[in-house]
Amino acid sequence: MLLRFRVANHRSIRDEQTLSLVSVPRRGERPKELSTVRVAGIYGANASGKSNVLSALKWMQFAISDSHQLWSPSKGVPRDPFRLPSGESSSPSFCELDFLHDGIRYSYGFEVDDRRILGEWLNTFPKGRTKKLFDRTGPTSITFGRSLVGETQRILKLTRPNSLYLSAAAANNHPLLTTLYNRIRDSIFFAQHGDHDERSRLFLVKELLNDESVASIINRLVRIADLGVEAAEIFNAVPTREEILRQMADLGQGATGSSSGSSSRTDIRLRRTSGAVLELSEESAGTRVWLSLLGHSLAAIASGGTLVADEIDSHLHPLLSSTLIRIFKDPVINKMGAQLVFASHDTTLLGSMLEEEVIDRDEVWFTEKDSSGATSLYSLAEFHPRRDENIERGYLQGRYGAVPYINFDSIREVFTKGPDETL
After folding, report:
1. Residue partners of 264: CB distance under 8 A and separation at least 6
2. Which position among 17, 121, 132, 198 has the lowest Cβ density within 10 Å, counted as fewest Cβ atoms?
3. HSE-up of 233 (CA within 13 Å, CB side)?
4. How many CB atoms lie within 10 A of CB 89?
């Protein structure tokens, strides 16, 4: 379960920004210790940095998962920092994640530049007090807390200047650190845009459809979505010429090489309520998106993990995207405390036009860029909106910022002035 995520110097995020999933009590309410929200939605203008907040969390997971075994020892750290006007990279990048595992709070983070790990730390908080597990103050300088048992020094000798100690510890089967590594790597699921990401999500759906009990849940959710679909099923399909050529290219064989890609592959087809059977490629984008999100959603709910979805409203009707949010917020369905973090432009999720309030004020976040192109991230809760305040209207009116400013008179001038006239 995520508590907070902090990041600095990643893409458009220059200065340190914090996304918190800790509940914010209303006025007059007593704060509950480590009470968390199940949903966090990020809103903002196009290119304001919403996706960069989510990609920063994905990059942190990537660094933890791959730095020790897959990063080249001679190629430094593959980060994507904020670009200065000169085109040069700026200061070190920083990521930190606060999370609960087995009821215990941990805080893990690191700082890197283009070449190496500058700092790395892991703390825990028994009875509210900070207990250090390890603290790295340079590429090869680490001090360990007394409570961190295991072959810490041996693992230190195997840790490269450009690999994370947590990654190296997991590769060498450290008991506690491997457990925390697996928690971060395996319980945060990402749903991004693009055909490749959709294919990877559908791959999980195919795996789940092989389990009759899970397939029953998926098919009931497909039917309830009113897509005109009765069931999703697995079948053996012959790949197209384009798919074979893509597989050859992925294997580096070239168009004339031999490939096993010509053999049959498993795919999904949908049996419609009309009786027709269509391959998934013949279905609408909305149908594919809903089905592809179900696999990651069910995996997160089953494990108490986190689904991070970029532009959750893309191709989905507002009632479908709001249904997904309500699934995560429903304590009967979401018994393990799974969380949904998403970016969206769908302001209906902020208002009351749907059946009931979808998102609470401490579940809404905004991104905004300054004149230098740097993103700031802030919470709606900072504005202390009234209980009866129309959040959707207030947002669209610019009351909370994070909306584009469009001067329609300037647009009219584009069409009325000649090409040589100054706008």
Report:
1. 236, 237, 238, 239
2. 132
3. 10
4. 16
pLDDT tens digits, one per residue of 232-256? 999 887 666 776 776 667 666 444 4
Which of 162, 204, 203 minimizes the C-alpha distance to 69? Answer: 162
- pLDDT tens profile 85-129: 765 666 999 999 999 999 999 999 999 999 999 999 999 998 878
Could you give the CA distance from residue 62 to residue 56 in angstroms, rounded to a whole number?
10
How many angstroms separate the Cα of 387 from the Cα of each of 350, 352, 395?
13, 12, 15
Residue range 126-146, pLDDT digits in tens: 887 899 999 999 988 999 999
CATH of 1-187+305-423, one of 3.40.190, 2.40.128, 3.40.50, 2.40.50: 3.40.50
CA–CA separation, 151 vs 174, rounded Å? 7
Domain boundaries, the chain: 1-187+305-423, 196-303
Cβ count near 240 (within 10 Å): 10
pTM: 0.89
Backbone angles phi, psi at 188, to 5 degrees: -115, 115
* Cα–Cα distances in angstroms (integers) from residue 276 to residues 20, 181, 271, 351, in the given order: 46, 46, 6, 38
Residue located via tokens 């209906």: 348
Of the candidates 34, 125, 66, 83, the one whose C-alpha atom is nearest the C-alpha of residue 337 is 34
Tell me how far CA of residue 227 lies from CA of 4, 61, 190, 230, 298, in angstroms.
Answer: 36, 34, 24, 9, 19
